[in-house]
Amino acid sequence: MQVCLDSGAKKILIPIASATDMAGVPAELMGKFNIIFYQSPEDAVFKALGVE
What we know:
Elements: H1 2-6, E1 11-15, H2 27-30, E2 34-38, H3 41-49
Parallel strand pairs: 1-2
């Protein structure tokens, strides 16, 4: 996430299966992003494109 922040990212897509791993991320780093969880690769594409 730090690399994404350094690159100017505002949104991050994260697989829902990795939600438990977010506990190790500092709150101030998480607060800098709009975190979007997805369930499948197809779901990730739709969310990345803003299609519901």
